[in-house]
Amino acid sequence: MTTLAHCRARLEESRHLCVASLGMWPDRPDLANTYVPWEGAAPMGAIARYLLGLRHEATHLEQLRDVTDQARADRRRKTLWGRWRSRSRRRPDSEADSQQDRLAPQSSRT
Question: What pTM was computed for the model?
Answer without folding.
Answer: 0.50
